[in-house]
Design goal:
The protein is of the alpha+beta class. Helices cover 39% and strands 23% of the residues. Strands 1, 2, 3, 4 and 5 form a five-stranded antiparallel β-sheet that branches.
């Protein structure tokens, strides 16, 4: 009986710590330095986009996307299946990120873009894209374009 109580307590603690560590949706990031945005892009591409886990994606979206969350989540899984296939993936066959960060402006907001090239899963050839981040009025950086 004592071991059952310990097991329940341990399970509850694990459940709480897992939910406490989840990323807040639609929060963006504060540090918009080139080095940090490149690290976030790489983390997103490997740990979210490739591994079919939308947690980082939703964390990087602006609050204006809240009303589209359900549709985006559905499209996320459909898009991953179409692009990479049904197999679980852990690494790219090809992943290249440019060193320079392109700076521009959109509707008065600063935008930084990082060019990438990748190939994985059922893709027959590599694809070029970019991670683009836009700084909003709250001085936080949000994903402006999904690769």
């Amino acid at each position: 009986m004592r071991s059952v109580a310990s097991l329940i307590t341990l399970s509850s603690m694990m459940l709480f710590s897992t939910s406490a560590s989840a990323l807040e949706r639609f929060a963006g990031i504060e540090d918009g330095s080139d080095a940090n945005l490149k690290a976030v892009c790489q983390d997103y591409m490997v740990n979210s986009y490739l591994k079919n886990d939308p947690e980082i994606f939703f964390h990087l979206l602006p609050k204006s996307m809240v009303s589209r969350a359900e549709r985006l989540e559905k499209k996320w899984y459909e898009g991953h299946l179409k692009r990479f296939g049904a197999e679980s993936l852990t690494e790219y066959e090809l992943f290249d990120m440019k060193d320079e960060v392109e700076k521009s402006e959109y509707k008065g907001h600063p935008v930084k873009s990082i060019s990438i090239k990748y190939q994985a899963g059922v893709m027959k050839r590599y694809r070029r894209s970019s991670c683009s981040f836009e700084q909003f009025e709250d001085n936080r950086w949000y994903l402006a374009q999904k690769p």
